[in-house]
C-alpha cells in the first residue's frame, strides 16, 4: 500500500488523459488543470486530511463552473467523494470520475438546480451557458 504522500505524487508521473497537476508547497493541495466539459481548462484544488486514505479528500473547483453537479462554492456532488468513498481510490481515479461527471452530468442529484433544469429542459441554453464558461476558462488559465 502506498503512503498517502506517495499516492499524491503519482499524479505528476502518471496523470489521467487531459489532466496536469502537482502538489503545492505544503504537499496537501493539488492544483489541477482539468480538461473536459467541451475542452475547457478548469482548475480545482484537492485537499487531503490526515485521515486520507480512510476519508476522501475535499475537492473543489476554483474556476467558475456552470454544471448540474457543481455547487456555487465549487464543491462537487460526486458519490465517490461522499458515501461511496473507498481507500482504494487514488487521485487519478478521482480526477477520471470528475471528468466523466463533467461530460455526463447527473441531473437527478443536482448541486446547481438551474443548471440541472436547463440540462433537462433546454439543452440549447445549457450549452450556451457552458460555452461561455469554457471560453472564460481559456482567459483565466
Structure, described:
This protein has a single domain (4-140), classed as Ubiquitin Conjugating Enzyme (Roll), CATH 3.10.110.10. It contains four helices and four strands; from the N terminus they run αββββααα. It has helices at 4-13, 91-103, 113-121, 123-140; strands at 19-23, 29-36, 40-47, 58-61. α3 (113-121) packs across α4 (123-140). The chain starts with a helix and ends with a helix. The model is unreliable at 26-32 (pLDDT under 50). InterPro entries: Ub_conjugating_enzyme (IPR050113), UBC (IPR000608), UBQ-conjugating_AS (IPR023313), UBQ-conjugating_enzyme/RWD (IPR016135). One of its GO terms (molecular function) is ATP binding. Residues 1-139 form the UBC core domain. It comes from Salmo trutta.
The largest sheet, given as strand count, sense and whether it forms a barrel, is: 4 strands, antiparallel
Write down the secondary-structure element order: HEEEEHHH
CATH architecture tag: Roll
Task: Name the strands of the widest sheet in spatial order.
Answer: 1-2-3-4
What's the Cα radius of gyration? 15 Å
Summarize the structure.
With 141 residues, this protein is α+β, with helices and mostly antiparallel strands. The protein is 35% helix and 18% strand.
List keywords for this structure.
141 residues; alpha+beta; Ubiquitin Conjugating Enzyme; 4-stranded antiparallel β-sheet; 4 strands; globular; ATP binding; UBQ-conjugating_enzyme/RWD; nucleotide-binding
Topology:
Layout: H1 4-13, E1 19-23, E2 29-36, E3 40-47, E4 58-61, H2 91-103, H3 113-121, H4 123-140
Antiparallel strand pairs: 1-2, 2-3, 3-4
Helix pairs in contact: 3-4
Amino acid at each position: 500500500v502506498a503512503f498517502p504522500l506517495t499516492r499524491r505524487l503519482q499524479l505528476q508521473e502518471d496523470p489521467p488523459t487531459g489532466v496536469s497537476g502537482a502538489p503545492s508547497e505544503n504537499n496537501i493541495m493539488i492544483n489541477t488543470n482539468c480538461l473536459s466539459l467541451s475542452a475547457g481548462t478548469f482548475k480545482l484544488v484537492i485537499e487531503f486530511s490526515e485521515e486520507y486514505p480512510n476519508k476522501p479528500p475535499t475537492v473543489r473547483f476554483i474556476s467558475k463552473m456552470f454544471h448540474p453537479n457543481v455547487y456555487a462554492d465549487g464543491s462537487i456532488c460526486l458519490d465517490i467523494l461522499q458515501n461511496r468513498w473507498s481507500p482504494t481510490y487514488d487521485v487519478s481515479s478521482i480526477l477520471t470520475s470528475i471528468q466523466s461527471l463533467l461530460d455526463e452530468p447527473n441531473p437527478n442529484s443536482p448541486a446547481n438546480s438551474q443548471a440541472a433544469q436547463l440540462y433537462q429542459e433546454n439543452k440549447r441554453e445549457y450549452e450556451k451557458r457552458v460555452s461561455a464558461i469554457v471560453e472564460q476558462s481559456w482567459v483565466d488559465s
